[in-house]
Amino acid sequence: MKSKDISNNILLSLFKVSIIALLLYLLFKLQSLLLYIAIAAVISLIGRPIVIFLKSKFKLGNLLSASVTIFVLVSILFGIISLFIPLLAQQGENLSLLDIDALQKDIEKLVFEVSLYFDLDKSFWESFLPDVKNFESISLSAIPKFLNNIFSLLGGLTIGFFSVIFISFFLLKDSHILENSIFIFVNKTNEKRLRKSFESIKDLLSRYFLGLLLQINILLIIYSIVLFAFGIKNAFIIAFLCSLLNLIPYIGPIIAALLMMILSMTSNLDADFSSIILPKTIYVMIGFIVGQLIDNFFSQPYIFSKSIKSHPLEIFLIIIVSGTLFGPIGMIAAIPFYTSLKVILKEFSSKNKIVRSLTKDL
User: Fold this and answer.
1) Is the same domain home to 57 and 155?
2) pLDDT digits (tens, 9 = 90+) for 125-168
3) Would you say residue 4 lies in a domain?
4) What is the number of structural domains in the chain?
5) Do 220 and 166 share a structural domain?
6) pTM, 2 dp
7) Could you tell me if 269 and 337 lie in one domain?
8) Domain that holds residue 239
9) What is the pLDDT of residues 174-233, one digit of tens each?
10) CB 261 within 8 Å of CB 101
C-alpha cells in the first residue's frame, strides 16, 4: 500500500472519529431535548388509541383529533395536580407559622418511643444515620428554604411542560413523523419491513402504557381503601404517590412501602406509640402487602401478557439484567426497548430458532 493511501485512510479514520465525538457531544448537550422527545413519544403512544377512536367513530381529521386528545390528556394532568394544590397550600401556611422547636420535639419523641418499644439505643440510630452525630444537632429550620428551592424549579418545569405538549401534539397529528426521520438513513429494500415493525411496536407499546395506567389505578384503589380505613391524613394523595412509585420495577414498591410507613406514623405524632401508632402502621403495611400481592400475582402478569405478549419470567429477567447494567432508568426502559427489539428481530430474523421461540406470540 502506498504511503499516500495510508495517509488518506488515517485522515478518513480521524474524520470518522471526529464526527462520532461531535455527535456524542451534541447528544450530551441536547439531553434535555432528547428527554422531552422521549416523554412526548410516550404521551403520543398513550393518546394514540384516543386519536384512532376519534378518527374512526367521529370522522375527525388529524388536526382536530390530536387537539382533542391533547386537551383530554392535559385536563387529566391538571386534575391530578389540583389534588395536590390544597395540600401544598396548607403545608405552606403551616411552614410559615412553623414552631421548629415543637416539631423537633415531636420527632424526637417519636424516635424515643420507637427506641423504647424495640429496645434500641442511641448508637443504633447513629450507625443507621452515620452523618447524624446526635439528635440535638438536627436543624429543621432548613425545611422552608428547601421547599422554596423546589418551587423555584417550577420555571424550568413550565418550559419543559410546554415543550413536551408541543412535541406530543405533532406526534399525535402525524404519527409517522419520527419514523420518517429514521427512514432517511434506511435503504429502500428494508424500509417496507421496518415500517411494518414500527406499526407493530406502536400498537404493542400503546397497549403497554395503557396497561401501566390500569395497574396504577388498581393499586391506587387498594391503597386508598387501606389508608382511609385507618384514618390516615391525606390518604388519597399518599396512595397516589405510592402507586406511581410502582412504575419503577422492584425498587419502586420498596420506596413506596417506606413512604407509606413513615407517613402513617407521622400522621399521629400526638398519639401513644405502642397502643395507636404502631398497631395502625402495622395494619396499613399489611394492607400494602396485600395490594402488592394482588399486583404481582394477578394484575401485573395479566396486563403484561396481554399488552406486550411476553412471559412474566421473561420480563423479570430482562428487568433484572437492565437494572444491573443501567440502574433504575434501565429498569423503567427495559420492557419498551425489549418489546421493540423483539418486533424488529421477528421481521428481519424470523428464520432464527431463538428469535422464533421468543416471538412466537407476537
Assistant:
1) yes
2) 555 554 444 444 445 555 555 556 666 666 667 778 888 899 89
3) no
4) 2
5) no
6) 0.70
7) yes
8) 187-362
9) 877 777 777 777 777 777 788 888 888 888 888 888 888 888 999 999 999 999 998 887
10) no
